[in-house]
Design goal:
heterotrimer, A alpha/beta, B mainly alpha, C mainly alpha, A: Rossmann fold, four-stranded antiparallel β-sheet, 11 helices, 10 strands, globular, disordered N terminus, C: globular
């Protein structure tokens, strides 16, 4: 890993195509008169956990929303491998392998934990409404396979005890893990997590860290947007720090922690 | 607080997961009552005519069945996908007049005309949904309302085709459906078929997708669900059922005028679903049955009927906003213990295995 | 032809004021109440009753009618909005306001009767005034007055600015010590007052009729959608547009297509520019 404090400029889409990197270059986004992001670049690699930290209002969630396609960007480009995702819809990016969780968990309260997780498998649903209506073999098979996969994922993240509970009786920590399981049901190449440690107990944060490490070892690229800086420094391979919509550091956790500007922004010294 | 020791969480065997009877897979005991009702209702539907006293009662029952054919399809749009469609009476009217015009002016067999009515209803649903479903909630509601108003006004305006304000008479269906009881069975069969179709949708991924549109379209997009396409498909289907229901409605009434298709009826269908409860099939059916029977039961009240209807509706919205279905569920669940969640203990090897397992398409 | 023009302007003015009433309630609650048209209906019916039935002068009947409007507005907020807002689901307030509107409509049917009854003359004027008849110019005058009055209210008075604050950011307003619920009640009362005033002023045009509510709600919404939600200038423009379109289509094509034309306008606007002429787009926060 290089010791550069600026985003790696040698990762252009041309070299990235075979390695499947998610590259965002020079992203800018304005809301009215406010620049939420100014020229932010970030590179996500498979099998790497990349942290994104910054104070409140620094643009972390905006960055995530822009990467997943909920907000169109004013300037910049986003590539996944050789595919240009800049103008592409949220759904298309999901199918390309980009999954996400939300700052405030968005679950379907009347469905079970299992069904909520299965929703992530939509990518593998090829049956149409007509086939489903007439109970054709394909939708039934898809349902069965998705249920099996979802069960394995839920047990894997530690929610095996709650598979058949309604999602609205889950505690906060469980909801966050459910979102992770749903994201994994998408068979993603990258998972973008929006403050997943928010409101978790110490045990749960440790469990989350273990889960993320397993994801990384499995070859998934992780973007961890977090407020919980200790957790970020412990778990991440690289960390990007932003403030007021600009990148102020991008380096190993150890170096970012020592970076003068980061210290100043966080401690106000 | 004592938690159970940290052990690998128990896993429900795969066979238990395949609980394909309920509309939501294996969501606790709350479905036992619903499952029971779900099995009993079709049987009851088939046996009921023999239990009834007079033809008038059979007429009301048949009407419930016809309304249900429409409401069942609409349920996917309103109850599952959460769209505020209040104008389906327009599609009902299109179905009704299709039957009446094809049989009356072109001598087509009623069964064939009914099929055409279904297709036409679906087509109109598709054409209406195409622009309207892009609108936010209340605007969409007004657009469907507007549609139903245009339909009724145009039905009066084009009086050479439709008989205008005076209306047209509707034929009975051919044997064996040409007796009240025979016609009831036609309606019941179609009703059961439509119920089966929507039940299949509701309990598979399409049903979950529709619910996602209602409860979190942001999350739906995040997992790749084509929001508009799902809404349009459900809406088109609801147009088909409305068209079929319309032709049956015309035949039952024997004579139709545009006045039979006022916007209040469109609101009525919408209310049946909301009052019954969204996200399942039994609830809206109960809602349809109750709300259709209400004016019959309240007949002595006559003039006060409408007023009472408004009062009941307001009371229902304020007291049981989630519908009769969940009020019943809440009551049957009232003695459930508070849930104690054990600590979250990931099984990392299992997780890694699950991630590496190939998906459907590979 | 001139009659058609003036009719169009007058009905358009009525629709415009109903649209403004929508705006007032929407601004503090984000709810589009289906009782809006009924507020105007009440103004017309009670105005006719108080003047013709009870024998009061118009000067006394008007404030009384406005009071009744305010009462109905408060009732709407209390019964149909307050408890339901907490739930967050759109369909619930659609149903609760619809139910309340139905209740009011049928209460009126029982009490006032189902026949449209004439509304009394407010200013002494004989019936040969043609296009200058007060039944046209009262609503037109009111619409202009309402638009400018509301603009002044929102921009120049303290209460108006408080309303605007609550509309833009209820959370921040509450943090600044503003009693958001009370402001909402007040705005619904204001809406009721303006609604009743509209019904009163347009009474000679529409007659005192119990079933007016639903059609006025829909027409007011069409004006609102065309002009842009949240904009009173848009309400004015949208209303006049709708009124003129409706009047002229009746003149050229006959009354049998009147509804189709009005709602056709709605559908067209929603297709081409859902935010309306002066409306702002909504940014969805994820």
């Amino acid at each position: 890993m290089s010791a550069a404090t600026l985003p790696d400029l040698q990762d252009s889409p041309a070299t990235a195509s075979s390695s499947g990197l998610l590259i965002a270059q020079g992203l800018s986004k304005r809301f009215g008169g406010v620049a939420a992001l100014s020229g932010v670049s970030i590179t996500l690699r498979p099998g790497e956990i990349h942290g994104l930290i910054g104070p409140n209002g620094s643009g972390k969630t905006t960055m995530l929303n822009v990467l997943t396609g909920y907000y169109p960007i004013d300037e910049g480009r986003i590539h996944l491998g050789s595919e240009d995702l800049t103008q592409v819809t949220v759904q298309r990016r999901a199918f390309a392998g980009i999954a996400r969780t939300f700052q405030k968990p968005r679950l379907l309260p009347t469905l079970s934990v299992l069904e909520n997780t299965m929703l992530g498998g939509w990518r593998d649903v090829h049956s149409g409404m007509l086939g489903t209506m007439f109970s054709a073999p394909r939708p039934r098979k898809e349902d069965r396979l998705l249920a099996e996969r979802a069960t394995e994922l839920l047990c894997g993240v530690g929610l095996g005890h709650a598979i058949h509970e309604r999602a609205d009786v889950l505690e906060h920590g469980e909801q966050r893990f459910l979102e992770v399981a749903r994201a994994l049901a998408m068979r993603p190449r990258f998972i973008l997590l929006d403050e997943p440690a928010g409101g978790l107990s110490f045990n749960e944060i440790d469990a989350l860290g273990e889960v993320l490490t397993t994801l990384k070892d499995s070859g998934i690229g992780v973007l961890l947007v977090e407020h919980h800086t200790d957790f970020v420094f412990k778990v991440c391979d690289r960390v990007t720090a932003i403030d007021f919509g600009r990148v102020i550091a991008c380096d190993t956790p150890a170096n970012v922690r020592r970076n003068e500007e980061v210290v100043r922004v966080y401690l106000g010294a | 607080m004592n938690h159970s020791p940290i052990i690998a969480p128990q896993v429900a065997p795969a066979s238990a997961i395949l609980c394909s009877d309920s509309t939501a897979m294996n969501v606790r005991r709350s479905l036992t009552l619903r499952q029971w009702l779900g099995r009993a209702a079709p049987l009851l539907a088939l046996v009921l005519p023999f239990l009834l006293g007079n033809e008038y009662q059979l007429h009301v029952l048949t009407l419930i069945g016809i309304y249900w054919v429409l409401v069942c399809g609409l349920n996917l749009v309103v109850g599952y996908a959460g769209q505020l469609s209040v104008g389906h009476v327009g599609l009902l009217a299109i179905g009704a007049y299709t039957l009446v015009i094809l049989t009356g002016r072109a001598g087509v067999d009623p069964l064939v005309a009914m099929a055409v009515a279904g297709v036409l209803g679906g087509l109109c649903g598709f054409l209406l949904g195409l622009p309207a479903l892009r609108l936010p909630g209340f605007y969409f509601a007004m657009a469907t309302l507007a549609f139903s108003l245009i339909v009724t006004e145009q039905l009066v305006a084009h009086n050479t085709l439709t008989g205008g304000g005076a209306g047209m008479s509707a034929p009975m269906f051919g044997a064996p459906f040409d007796t009240p009881r025979g016609f009831y069975y036609l309606v019941a069969l179609i009703g059961l078929l439509v119920t089966w179709l929507t039940w299949n949708i509701g309990r598979r991924m399409w049903g979950r997708g529709l619910i996602a549109l209602r409860d979190s379209d942001v999350a739906a997009a995040a997992v790749g669900i084509p929001v508009f396409r799902l809404k349009l498909a459900a809406f088109t289907f609801s147009g088909v059922t409305a068209g079929v229901a319309g032709s049956l409605f015309a035949s039952l009434q024997g004579y139709i005028t545009p006045e039979a298709f006022l916007f209040e009826l469109g609101m009525f269908f919408f209310i049946c679903i909301i009052i019954g409860g969204r996200g399942n099939i039994i609830g809206p059916f109960a809602g349809t049955a109750v709300l259709t029977l209400l004016p019959e039961v309240a007949a002595p009240l006559a003039k006060l009927g409408n007023l009472l209807y408004g009062v009941l509706l307001l009371a229902a919205v304020l007291l049981i906003p989630k519908g009769i279905g969940s009020a019943v569920t809440a009551w049957t669940e009232r003695r459930r213990e508070r849930r104690h969640a054990p600590p979250i203990a990931p099984n990392l090897s299992r997780l890694a295995a699950a991630i590496h397992k190939p998906g459907e398409s590979t | 032809m001139l009659n058609t023009l003036v009719t169009g302007l007058a009905t358009g003015a009525l629709y415009a004021v109903v649209a403004m009433v929508f705006n007032i309630m929407y601004s503090t609650s984000k709810v589009l109440s289906l009782t809006t048209g009924h507020m105007a209906m009440l103004g017309g019916v009670f105005g006719a009753y108080l003047i013709t039935g009870v024998g009061l002068s118009a000067w006394v009947a008007l404030p009384l009618a406005m009071l009744i409007g305010a009462g109905f507005g408060l009732l709407t907020e209390f019964l149909a909005i307050r408890r339901v807002l907490a739930q967050g689901d759109e369909h619930l307030w659609v149903l609760s306001t619809l139910a309340l509107g139905t209740i009011v409509q049928h209460l009126m049917a029982l009490w006032w009767g189902t026949e449209p009854k004439p509304f009394p003359r407010l200013i002494s004027q004989d019936f040969s005034a043609g296009p200058w008849d007060q039944k046209y110019w009262l609503p037109i005058g009111l619409a202009a007055l309402a638009a400018s009055g509301l603009a002044l209210f929102y921009r120049r008075t303290l209460l108006g600015r408080v309303f605007t604050a609550v509309a833009e950011d209820p959370f921040a307003a509450r943090a600044r010590g503003i009693a958001v619920e009370r402001v909402r009640s007040m705005s619904f009362a204001l809406a009721g007052i303006l609604g009743a005033l509209a019904g009163f002023a347009a009474g000679q045009l529409t007659f005192a009729f119990f079933a007016l509510g639903m059609w006025l709600t829909l027409s007011g919404f069409i004006a609102l959608a065309a002009g842009g939600l949240g904009s009173n200038l848009g309400a004015l423009v949208g209303g006049v547009l709708l009124g003129l379109l409706s009047a002229f289509s009746t003149y050229f094509f006959g009354a049998e297509h009147q509804q189709s034309v009005s709602v056709g306008l709605l559908l067209l606007v929603l297709l081409v520019k859902p935010a309306g002429l002066f409306g702002k787009g909504i940014v969805r926060h994820v």
